[in-house]
Amino acid sequence: MNKSVHVVISGRVQGVWFRASTKEQAERLGLIGWVRNTENGDVEAVFQGSDKLVEEILNWCKTGPPLAKVNNIKVENIEQINDINCFSIRY
What is the CA radius of gyration of the chain? Predict the structure, then answer.
């Protein structure tokens, strides 16, 4: 079963390699989607893949890379986005 989620991660998540680390983790798991910084200091992402692998990346996002300090993570199930075929960093 495939799952698609929209995620907003809050805390000390910008300037700590969160986007690059997220891309690395997502590609390692074979997920597709994107990650970007928001203007208010959060990180926003979309992950698509098997239920198990999406849950794995969501668990990773609760901690993130070593310099990050995640305070909150909001996860919303969304409809699958069909025009995504890789994982990218958006600017």
Answer: 12
Q: Which of 19, 59, 71, 72 is catalytic?
A: 19
Q: Is 82 a catalytic residue?
A: no
Q: What is the DSSP-derived secondary structure letter of residue 86?
A: S
Residue 90 annotated to the active site = no
Phi, psi of 25 (to 5 degrees): -65, -45
Alpha carbons 57 and 72: distance in angstroms, whole number: 15
Q: What is the C-alpha separation between 3 and 18, in angstroms, rounded?
A: 22
2-89: CATH topology is Alpha-Beta Plaits (3.30.70)
Catalytic residue among 12, 37, 40, 59: 37
Predicted pLDDT of residue 47: 98
What is the DSSP-derived secondary structure letter of residue 83?
Answer: T
Residue range 7-61, pLDDT digits in tens = 999 999 999 999 999 999 999 999 999 999 999 999 999 999 999 999 999 999 9
